[in-house]
Amino acid sequence: MTRSQIFNIPNILAFIRLLLAPLMFLFLVNQNASFFEGIDKSWLNYFAAFIFVVASATDFFDGYIARTFNQITTLGAILDPLADKMLTLAGFLGLMMLGSASPWAIFLILTRELFITGLRVSAMSQGMDISASWMGKVKTVAQMIAIGFLLMQWPGGTLLLWIAVVLTLYSGYEYVRDFFTHTQL
Predict the structure, then answer these.
(1) Where does the chain have alpha helices with state H?
(2) pLDDT in single tens digits along all 185 residues of the chain
(3) What pTM did the predictor assign?
(4) What is the Cα–Cα distance from 62 to 8, expressed in whole angstroms?
């Protein structure tokens, strides 16, 4: 792999998302820290929401650029889902720690994510296609919308979170079904 393949725009955008996730988490879980003294907690949520929106936009653009300009790389296939998981993990765990998201919803989403990540690794080891399905992309968008609503404390955030849970579990079912349909186990 050449240097230009590693440092292409989609990979750089995914790497930026990797860096923004812990920054957003910092704003969410350290609201009582001395270095945030004097800043209203609602502003810390707004900063976290702004970081989340910027990071979410990089998710759209890295995929669009990679497909449009044929810049799909093995590194990108690893970085992109990792960055997505880190961003949603930071958002969901931060919101749960603030008491703004149901621990059960977060547990179900994170359990599915970990299980399917393991399944995708197993599929990849067998040479199977591991790219995200259409429902997997819908699930990611639903999760990101739910996180955004919950961060901004807009009405309907909890309902959107549970819709994201249902879509997350259904897309997980699709991965499992497809895996066992095509696997050599």
Answers:
(1) 3-6, 9-29, 41-68, 74-97, 103-125, 134-152, 157-182
(2) 677 667 899 999 999 999 999 999 999 999 988 989 999 988 999 999 999 999 999 988 998 999 899 888 888 888 888 899 999 999 999 999 999 999 999 999 999 999 998 888 888 788 887 677 899 889 999 999 999 999 999 999 999 999 999 999 999 999 999 888 877 65
(3) 0.89
(4) 10
